[in-house]
Amino acid sequence: MDGSIYEYEKGGKKRYRVVYRVEVSIGKLKQRQKRGFTTIKAAKEFLTKVQNQLLNGTYIDPVTQNQRTATELCLLRTT
Fold it and tell me: pLDDT 10s digit of each residue in the chain, 79 long?
C-alpha cells in the first residue's frame, strides 16, 4: 500500500495533504485524500495509520461508512 504527502499553502501557511488508494471492490481502486495537516509529522502519522488499517483489514472508508442499503432504508420506513 502506497500513499503520498503533498505540501500546499492556505492563507499563507503551509499545509499537507495525504493521498492514498483503497480497493472498493475486487480490482477497483478509488483515490482518497485528507487535507489540512499543519505538520508533515501529523500527515505521516495519519498515512501510517491508514496503511496499517488497510493491511489489517480494519479500514473503514469514510466515504461509504454512512451509506445505507435499500433494505436498510425500507426497514427504517416501516418502523
Answer: 689 999 999 999 999 999 999 988 788 899 999 999 999 999 999 999 999 999 998 988 877 766 666 666 677 677 6
For residues 21 and 32, the answer to whether their CB atoms sit within 8 Å is: yes
Instruction: Answer whether 5's CB lies under 8 Å from 51's CB.
Output: no
3-class SS at 51? Answer: helix
pTM of the model: 0.76
Question: Please, what is the end-to-end C-alpha distance for the chain in angstroms?
Answer: 42
CB 17 within 8 Å of CB 71: no
| Domain ranges for the chain | 3-78
Q: Can you tell me the distance from the alpha carbon of 60 to that of 2, in angstroms, rounded to the nearest whole number?
A: 17
